[in-house]
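[job 0417] fold request received: Adenine phosphoribosyltransferase
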Amino acid sequence: MTIQLDTAFLKNAIRTVPDWPQPGVMFRDITPLLQDPKAFRLLVDVFVLRYMDRAIDVVAGIDARGFILGSVVAHQLNVGFVPVRKKGKLPFTTIAEDYELEYGNATVEMHTDAARKGDRVLLIDDLIATGGTMMAAARLLARLGAEVVEAAAIVDLPELGGSKLLRDAGLEIFTVCDFSGH
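[job 0417] inference complete; emitting structure tokens
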């Protein structure tokens, strides 16, 4: 059974902040969506309903807004949560992956025991822009022997090419809404 939800309500709850963090950037701010209890519940339900019948072993959330949604979804799916952190934030043995951002370069890390060989992982973040962070996180999980079942986000910014990059790399993608042409 497929459940269809009207996600226009969620898209309308996302605030656009022009020229932040630099001129010409239209920042998609999810905090109003998280502050609205109905919108936040609907958002979580969209993900939980999508993944509740799939064999997911763990949810991996990307620093920092992916932690918010990822941990709640993991809790609702009754699976563990794995943080994919910015470099230097984890206290145990880590593996690292460098990637390019819209505004420069960065590194993400995860603990070496965060996922096991054969784990089926839902990788989640707030948005897909250039796709660099999501690709780096997927590469980390693959290095640990885990399989990314799907890369999911609230927002897709398709004009920045990230979702195409991820699909071209063989990742399945799910996003709640996109902001193309805006």
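[job 0417] notes: The beta strands are 15-18, 26-29, 58-62, 80-86, 94-101, 104-111, 120-128, 147-156, 173-178. The first helix runs from residue 8 to 12.
[job 0417] exit 0
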